[in-house]
Amino acid sequence: MAVLDVVKKRRSFRSFDDKPIEERKLEQVLEAGRLSPSAMNKQPWTFIVVSDPETKSGLNEAMNQTWNPAILVVGCAHPGEAWVRDDGEEYWKVDVAIAMQSMCLVASDLGLATCWICAFDEDQVKSLLDIPDEVRVVGLMALGYSSMKKGKVTKRKAAGEIFKYNSW
Ligand SMILES: Cc1cc2nc3c(=O)[nH]c(=O)nc-3n(C[C@H](O)[C@H](O)[C@H](O)COP(=O)(O)O)c2cc1C
């Protein structure tokens, strides 16, 4: 599928079928994250692929919500390894977000459903998954099949509202 078509097709899914993800598809989704760009190519990330039901249930507690995807991908950043601009601005969240969105798009192209999740208690996630202190959890991604039908992306600001050309 053309990339713009995938961007139009990708939606957030919050309910999932009880169907596993084929190993080959999961590999491709993860590969999209691995190949993603990062500032100065620092790749300051680790992704934890959670399929264990008990661990997912612990994550649900940390999210204070019940998610039922086959997999939850936990996107982690290593701020100490990431590029920092001369003025101190840090880019590790951007790096991890780009990688996770690459995964979302490839998943969508493969017929899988995803949802970004940033509403979670970071300390709870870190303690549940034994994530080291210096590592930050940027976001989670629900990944699986969903028989819910959703149309293409809607409810976006009009181009005229968000693009300016050559100056503000
Ligand atoms: C950074 C980020 C964090 C998000 N966090 C959550 C979340 O915690 N829970 C949730 O249900 N959806 C979450 N979403 C999904 C958005 O609500 C969704 O992308 C938006 O409403 C547009 O809908 P669409 O993805 O179907 O086009 C998040 C999306 C992004 C990009």
Q: What is the element layout, followed by pairings?
A:
Elements: H1 3-9, H2 23-34, E1 45-50, H3 53-63, E2 71-77, H4 92-109, E3 113-117, H5 122-129, E4 136-144, H6 159-162
Antiparallel strand pairs: 1-2, 2-4, 3-4
Bound molecules: flavin mononucleotide.
Descriptive notes:
The chain is α+β, with helices and mostly antiparallel strands and 168 residues long. The protein has one domain (21-147): NADH Oxidase, CATH 3.40.109. The chain is 36% helix and 16% strand. The protein has 6 helices and 4 strands. It has a 4-stranded antiparallel β-sheet with strand order 1-2-4-3, sandwiched between helices. Helix 1 packs across helix 4, helix 2 packs antiparallel against helix 4 and helix 3 (53-63) packs antiparallel against helix 5. The longest helix is centred in the middle third of the chain and has 18 residues, at 92-109. It is globular, with a radius of gyration of 17 Å. It starts with a helix and ends in a 6-residue tail after the last helix. 29% of the residues are buried. The model has no long low-confidence stretch (mean pLDDT 98).
Number of DSSP helices? 6
- Return the string of H and E elements: HHEHEHEHEH
Amino- and carboxy-terminal Cα gap = 34 Å
| Biggest β-sheet description | 4 strands, antiparallel
Number of strands: 4
Q: Strand percentage, roughly?
A: 15-25%
CATH topology: NADH Oxidase
CATH homology superfamily: NADH Oxidase
| CATH second-level architecture | 3-Layer(aba) Sandwich
- Radius of gyration over all CA atoms, rounded: 17 Å
- The CATH class label is Alpha Beta
| Mean of pLDDT | 98
Query: Any idea how many domains?
Result: 1
Which percent bin holds the helix content?
Answer: 25-40%
Low-confidence stretches: none
Secondary structure class reads alpha+beta
Bound molecules: flavin mononucleotide
Q: Which sequence of strands runs across the widest sheet? A: 1-2-4-3
Shape verdict: globular
